[in-house]
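Q: I have 209 residues here and want to know how they pack in 3D. Can you give me a structure?
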Amino acid sequence: MPDLPLWALLWFAVLVALGALFAMTYRRMTKLTTRTHDLEDFQEALESIDLRFGSVVQPLLRGLDEARRHAGDSSGLQELVTEAEAVIDELTGETTTLAAPEGLAPVVTALTGDLDRAGRAVMLVEHGLAMLTNTSIGRDLEAQTSLKRGALNLRHARDAFAERARKVADLRPADMVPGTPARKGQPATAAAYRVSDPEDGEKAFDPSM
């Protein structure tokens, strides 16, 4: 077999290098496309959950605020509580099974925790309503305390969930690449998603805060 001329060897080397570069670029583009689709699907699903969560929490908080200020009838709160319990339980199941993009599994765990905290807060509100409507028990102060603490914890859980959902909505596919510098105001990693625990300390009761 005759020796190939030097220019032919150089062209062959260039073609090999270009082929390797194309293959590398294609793999990276494929990963970016997959990452983009996964993130968009996750963001859409979480947006839906966030909207439904807010749609049952806000009316209940308004009702509790009105009842506390004696501007409304607390008897109508039971229906809101029942609806909130059902929806929160449904959303907890949906959130638990969300297909999280790589690096966002801790966020799903935190979101599920927020919903669980909200569910427990609604149960506390229900407990307060039960004592409040049963006048024969004579535990009005305990009932008011349960309503107050339940509303406060529910507000904190809702705010924490909404804040995590907002940060997820702001993510770009490039933010999911390890080693990529975070944008201003954007956590560098999923593990940075933190919101104060409402049980770290009590604040003055204000459902509209």
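Q: Anything worth noting?
A: The radius of gyration is 26 Å. The helical segments are 6-68, 77-96, 105-133, 140-170.
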